Amino acid sequence: MSNKTPMNRRPLSKLLDPKSVAVIGASDDAKRIGGRPLQYLLKGTFSGPVYAVNANRETVQGIPAYKTILDVPGEVDAVIIAVPAAVVIQTVRDCAKKGVGAAVIFTSGFAEQDTQGVEWQSELTQISNKTGIRLLGPNCLGTFNAKTGWLATFTTSIDQYPVRPGPIAIASQSGAFGSHLYTVAAKRGVRCTYWVTTGNEADVELSECIAYYAQSPEVKVIAVYAEGVRNGPGLRDALELAYRNKKPVIFQKVGRSGAGAEAAASHTASLAGSDEIYDALFRQYGVFRVDSIEELLDIALACQAGAMPSGDKIGLLTISGGAGVQMADTAEASGLNVAEMPIEQQKHLKELIPFAGVRNPVDVTAQALNDLTLIKRFMESMMEFGGYDAVVAFFTVVAGSRVISEQLIETLKDIREQYVNAPMILSIVAPDDIVRDYEKAGYTILEDPARAVRAAAALIHFGTSFEKNLAAQAPALPPNVMQAPDKLRGEDECRKILASAGIPMANSELARTAKDAVSIWQGIKVPVALKIVSSDILHKTEIGGVALNLNNANDIENAFNRIIEAGKTHYPDAKIDGVIVSEMITDGVETVLGVINDPIFGPAVMFGLGGVFVEVLSDVTFRLAPFDITEAHRMISEIKGIKMLYGARGAQPSDINSIAEALVKLSVFAHKNAEKISSIDINPFMVKPEGKGAAGVDALIIPNGVEVN
Amino acid sequence: MSNKTPMNRRPLSKLLDPKSVAVIGASDDAKRIGGRPLQYLLKGTFSGPVYAVNANRETVQGIPAYKTILDVPGEVDAVIIAVPAAVVIQTVRDCAKKGVGAAVIFTSGFAEQDTQGVEWQSELTQISNKTGIRLLGPNCLGTFNAKTGWLATFTTSIDQYPVRPGPIAIASQSGAFGSHLYTVAAKRGVRCTYWVTTGNEADVELSECIAYYAQSPEVKVIAVYAEGVRNGPGLRDALELAYRNKKPVIFQKVGRSGAGAEAAASHTASLAGSDEIYDALFRQYGVFRVDSIEELLDIALACQAGAMPSGDKIGLLTISGGAGVQMADTAEASGLNVAEMPIEQQKHLKELIPFAGVRNPVDVTAQALNDLTLIKRFMESMMEFGGYDAVVAFFTVVAGSRVISEQLIETLKDIREQYVNAPMILSIVAPDDIVRDYEKAGYTILEDPARAVRAAAALIHFGTSFEKNLAAQAPALPPNVMQAPDKLRGEDECRKILASAGIPMANSELARTAKDAVSIWQGIKVPVALKIVSSDILHKTEIGGVALNLNNANDIENAFNRIIEAGKTHYPDAKIDGVIVSEMITDGVETVLGVINDPIFGPAVMFGLGGVFVEVLSDVTFRLAPFDITEAHRMISEIKGIKMLYGARGAQPSDINSIAEALVKLSVFAHKNAEKISSIDINPFMVKPEGKGAAGVDALIIPNGVEVN
To answer: Which of B261, B267, B643 sits opposite A616 (nearest CB)?
Structure first.
């Protein structure tokens, strides 16, 4: 919650990997929330001391009960708090006094409930800040560490599906959803070492858990469920850490839609940043965003096998032509390269099975299952000569029997071991035990062929994105850069400020006399536009305050006088500053650059094509500031109308590099001035043909706290 | 295969519902393809006579074996043929001679293999056409009728998952995929009465099976898998029949992508129509297109319950706020209306559970499962006062135990019975037997909440689309309509032809002299454009052969002379017909109307916005001709840039009705001239503000067989 770190703040390991624990509000009844975790701890594998605290009993579940935590004799790293809301604060104070490192607070009735609860929760935050004790919750379902048996949760899910340590770590804001996620994961053989639900986040928030996972050697894959975070920079840092440690993060962020966002707001006290900003953040750090638990688990399962290739060539093997076509459809829709097999190998494979499909998809036909060595030879050919980065194979129910599964695993053993970096995902319909056998042999099993291909695409997404380099640091601004304004300024001044940051802007100057105007044009020597400057005149075009495409002294002088005259006629009381003379750019593609200062994440830079693209199609993309040139290019390539910049309709390709450079500089400027600005618009930003640059024509900087209609 | 129906062609019921059957090539070994179906028939529920034909044995699997089909004493409705390719033709001839109604040909080695196979297959088609015997396959996995026990297939899937009659019917071109589909369906409790795989389609094709299902009282839901059909009108008729009988068709058509299409072409001998045309067809007849088997089965499962509401208000009930948000996201993305609960009821529900979410999603919190009557009261409120057309509820693992499932079903019994037309889909994690209990009680169970919402959206899609009326017949063309040209004609003539069909075209006339030009303008009295007319001059604009925006006699006369002069200068040998004088339309939105004559489906009409929308974004949509005004409006509403027509950027709304009328007329014209045209372009078709009409400015009709560069 707070960004201030008190001196004595305890490390998160006290919460997630404690050596000694206590349950406060411990119950003899294992069905109650104070009883179930105690039972889990006593009957499970937790090897450190477990204490029970209950003011009204001598013993609980067969162990002695202490009156308060202060009466516990030994050291206590972490406690579970299952007492009524009204006594939680005193309990936490006692814990802090005792020197407890962390408390898991199940109790509800805090910020999610009423103003009294909001007050209590704020007090919890203060205690944590002051004493350094770490708090999970309140109003959460707790946490577990499957490796040590620290099962600090009252969910019944781990009764039904006992915890099994493994490469996955889950962090969820929602308790019920976190529990659902764990259950479905466990049912499908996804093995989790860590599981945390953060509830109201009085202290520990999601990002800190992600950062912990990012540094934990046991964790290979991070799965996150969130409705919205309050500490944007914290999340950004955590995702960057995971990225640098090459740990795939699969993120389900709900609240994309209007209705969803409303539900999120009424469900949690969290203030959600706008959804586009999350997308920007996720793109920046290679996070894979999913829309369903199922997709999350498909990918987690596939990541669990370990291979994440950085090439996008996918090999599709099938025993049914139809399934092959479907997989090819899905692969293309997922941006994968369904590269053809080398012609020589196609001939060779045709000799093995005359009716096989050999291009890719490679269709061995159902007959190959009568002679599995054929499948082996096809796979060898695909891996060695096709050079595929990943393989998805459709074997359906045919490979789902014990007889075939054992033979198939044995037959493909050498290939599986030789190409350890290539994911092999099999679409097989089989009972769970046979699925587990395939998994042990290094395959991922997903029943549906489309889902199998999409999981392969996610692995390739991670592999590819871990290859790219994050900028070591943001580039510096020019030495003579101007500050962002504190008050609303005219477009001329905004243009100058942005130009000082290195963003190319169209030549333009304020002329106070007709002579000024002519001499400004003489300095530029290209066609110019004239526009009246006055904060009192709103509809400049309508009153004749604008003239376009002037390219000789006489016309410019006349236009200047006409414009001033028009201003005086229509707005007799207006204060007229003069007329702006600016370079006309006619041979460019219209784009829009912008910045919005997100309340959660800070400044985000926007890019889009102008005209109908931005106004009708909302074809824009965002990145959190600051970022480097590679990221800027990635950003530009995301817009739907990108063809316009590549040179659509016979036009020359645009100077994309100039856009990228301008975006980077805008991002650095916005980042440095994050406290001052509310938003920036450079619209239009005209992009000329390749090699000829680009220039912003109109600019507006809205300072923080200024309302603009 | 053929459109000609011989006099004595047998009805498809001989194939799908025979009363007496024989297996030719019957084997004693139940593992062989001639043995397995015989075993299915003898040990299953088929009640009619079953004969075995095997030239080399006295008995097969305990019943007498006849030398040939001609030796079988009784009548035979259908046979299974499992003999080598080389003797299939003679076998089929014998069957025809015997008066057999239909043959299921498993044998492969026909058109999918080599030229010999192509010949043989063509002979099979001829025998069928001549004698009327119906042929399924060759190279297919057969068919079954679960109601009668006619199990004419050698797939082992029905060994593993015995057939159970039910409301679903499956038709698949691919055998292996069809078998996979059946297995996964059966595993999930989807009950199929009919299952057909059509293989090479020497005679019976997919569409005929769909038409049969559309008329079969047992069938409530039709599930189809196809790689591409060869008889487009046949498919259209079948889908129309299903539509008129209000039977939902769920269609997986693969080959969307480039790679997919290649694989389809190499897998089957089928000539696929372009994918956009399939989309057009599916939209026209309310078919739900899916991209995966999983989605197909989710929807089939949901359809099986029977309710398909025609309203789009979805109620979301949840025990986890997070899941509620996710469901709301998915619902909005699926185009559903996540309507809020009435305010009064929100207050009322808050009284029942103070911390509940009550807007919609309605979050009863996990506590409600301790007192199921609370869930009942919330559900009552949602159905009675919220008026939702469908409900999706997230209960996860919590409702997956026997204790809770029995109580929940009992508690909600009255509500379930009272709102029988509202689908109720529950997201529950439960063992299969408990899932079956919920299903029996009238619920659809889908584990994943996102998939549950998407299935609800599909039911609403069907309900809504069955409400709309198909045009009883296409509107007539004006009496004086001109014929489509046989040769390539100039734009002026094309314009006149289309105008004669009732499509509004900009006023324009050919002028042979400057005086002509002026008098044409005087007839129109609006600004005009002049353009040189000569089939010898290609780049008219570049040579100065075009002049725009002329609105007085003098300018027009000068422009005419200049244009003719320019033509003569640049193309001294050109035959110049004159100059077209046409009305300029400047206050309109640029759109494009077109027709392509698809080789499979015939003429399809295209609509799109002009400029970047069609050229950069390919923002167009299609419908098969002919269609009525309602369908035209639906079509227009599908384009991504539709906001442009509603009046984007302060513009007035466009005259959408004029577009719709033009599309209908174009569709009727294209349909009537299907034999003559290859394509039509009306580009641009300028649409003026509402009430002011629209007009095509340029037009091109390309006749069949004419090559244009």
So the answer is: B643
Q: How many CB pairs under 8 A join A and B?
A: 258
Residues on chain B touching A258 (C-beta within 8 angstroms)? 332
* Architecture, CATH, for domain B507-583: 2-Layer Sandwich (3.30)
What's the mean per-residue pLDDT of chain A?
A: 91
pTM value?
0.88
B558-614 per-position pLDDT tens digit: 999 999 999 999 999 988 989 999 898 888 899 999 998 888 899 999 999 987 777
Q: Give the closest-approach CA distance of A477 to chain B in angstroms.
A: 36
Comparing A155-304 with A314-467, is the CATH topology the same? yes
Residue A473 phi/psi, 5-degree rounding, is: -155, 160
Helix A449-467 and helix A293-304, axial crossing angle in degrees, nearest 10: 60
Where exactly are the structural domains of chain A? Answer: 10-140, 155-304, 314-467, 507-583, 589-703
Confidence of residue B383 (pLDDT cuts 50, 70, 90): very high
The chain B residue lying nearest A451, using CA atoms, is B292
Looking from the CA of B203 toward its CB, the CA atoms found within 13 Å total 30
Chain A nearest-CA residue for B266 = A357
If you write DSSP's letter for every residue of A213-229 in order, what string do you get?
HHH-TT-SEEEEEES--
Weakest-pLDDT range from A65-74, A275-284, A544-553, A608-617? A608-617
Amino acid (1-letter code) at residue A194: Y
CB–CB contact A259 B328 (8 Å): yes
Task: Tell me the pLDDT tens digit for each residue of A170-196.
Answer: 999 998 889 999 999 999 889 999 999
Contact B112, B269 (CB under 8 A): yes
What DSSP letter does each residue of B575-625 carry, written as one string?
Answer: ---EEEEEE---SSEEEEEEEEEETTTEEEEEEEESTHHHHTS--EEEEES
Count CB neighbours of A7 within 10 A.
5
Check residue A263 and give its pLDDT: 52
pLDDT of residue A261: 54
Is the ipTM higher than 0.90? The answer is no
- Closest residue in B to A453 (Cα) is B292
A256–B contact, CB cutoff 8 A: yes
What CA–CA distance (Å, rounded) separates B287 from B243?
A: 8
Q: Do the chains contact at A396 and B179, CB–CB below 8 Å? A: yes
Q: Which is it for the CA torsion A470, A471, A473, A477, positive or negative? A: negative
Q: Is B657 on the interface with A (CB under 8 A)?
A: no
CATH number belonging to the domain at A155-304, selected among 1.20.81.30, 2.60.40.10, 3.40.50.450, 3.40.50.261: 3.40.50.261
**A320 vs B175: CB contact, 8 Å cut-off?**
yes
Region A589-703: CATH code: 3.30.470.20
Contact: A174, B326; criterion CB under 8 Å: no
- B591 touching A (Cβ < 8 Å): no
Query: Using omega within 30 degrees of 0 as the cis cutoff, is the peptide bond preceding B138 cis?
Result: yes
Cβ <8 Å between A293 and B649: no
pLDDT value of position B289? 97
pLDDT score, position A7: 60
User: Can you tell me the mean pLDDT for B283-305?
Assistant: 94
Q: What is the mean pLDDT of residues A25-38?
A: 94
Contacts of A450 in chain B (CB under 8 A): 291-294
SS3 B83: coil
| B654–A contact, CB cutoff 8 A | no
CATH number of A10-140: 3.40.50.720
Superfamily the domain B314-467 falls into = Succinyl-CoA synthetase domains (3.40.50.261)
Q: Which tens digit of pLDDT belongs to each residue from B401-427?
A: 898 999 999 999 999 999 999 999 999
Nearest CA in chain A to B174: A322
Say yes or no to pLDDT of B148 above 50: yes
